[in-house]
C-alpha cells in the first residue's frame, strides 16, 4: 500500500511530492521533483513522531539535516499503528504526548483553582465592598432600620437618656446624607458604634466616662463619619460577602438584606481599617469645628480611655495606635485655629444626659 505525502529533505524547505510505503523494518520513501527521482529508506530506530493532528501525520528522521514527511491521508495513522505496534517511536511519543496532556491539564486545573481561590478570598469581599458603597440611600436606610431594631432587642434601652441624647443631636449641626438617630443602652460596656443608614448606639458605660460634652460631640461626629462614609455598611458587606454570594447564586437578591439583618450581631465585631478610623476622626473634628466647640473634645476622650481600661472601646480597640491618632488630631487642630464658643442648648442637653 502506498500513501501520498510530502518529503522534506532538511536542506530545502519546500516539500517534494512523495509516495510512502510501510515496510517491515522501516519506511520507504520515493519522491519526485519532476526533474529527478529519489529514494530514501528510514530505519525504524531513527524515526521520531513529530506531531499528529486531525488531518496530518508528521514524522521526522535522523539528525541534522533532519528529514521529515507529512502524510495527509486518513488511513496512514492507523496503518502506522498496526504495522509498528509497540515500536519505540510510536510508544514513546504517545506516552510523552499523554504526559504533556496530563501535565498541561494539571497546570490549567491548578491555575483555575488558584484563580477561584483568589476570587473567593479577595474578590468576593472586594466586590461586596464596592457594591455596598453604591447601595441606594433608601435601601441602606431601610436595611439599617431593620438591623437597628434587631440589635436593640439584645439591649435595654435607656429611654430618658435617649431622649436627652437626641435633644443634644438636634442642637448640633450635622452634615449627613441620613437622618441621625442615636440611642443610649444600659450597661457598663465602654463602647459605641455606627449602624448603616444613620443609627448610632452609645453604651451608658462610655457615656459615664465622658467629662465634657465636647467629648460626646467628637464621638458622635466620629460615629456619624462611619455612617456617612459607609464604613459600617461596607465592613458588614465584606464580612458577610460569602452569604451574600450564596443568596445571589440562588437568585435570591432580596435575601441579601435578610442575610445582613440575620447577622446583626456582626456589627459588634466589625473592624475598620486604620484609614477608616482616621477618616472618622477627621469627621469628628469637622463636626466640632462646625459647631464652634473646642476641637480638643475628641482628644480628651481618647486620652482618657487610652489610660484606663480601653479594651471594649471600638474607638481604641480596633487599632492600637491611639497615640498616632491623637497626634494626627492635634496636628489638624493646630491647622484650624478658631475660638471655641459656649453653646447653652448643648450644655443643657448634656446636663440632662449626665443626670443620675
Ligand atoms: Zn471608629
TrEMBL record:
Keywords: Hydrolase, Membrane, Metal-binding, Metalloprotease, Protease, Transmembrane, Transmembrane helix, Zinc. Binds 1 zinc ion per subunit. The chain crosses the membrane at residues 102-128, 240-261. The keyword Transmembrane applies. PANTHER family: METALLOENDOPEPTIDASE OMA1, METALLOENDOPEPTIDASE OMA1, MITOCHONDRIAL. This is M48 family metallopeptidase. Its cofactor is Zn(2+). Belongs to the peptidase M48 family. The keyword Membrane applies. Residues 171-331 form the Peptidase M48 domain.
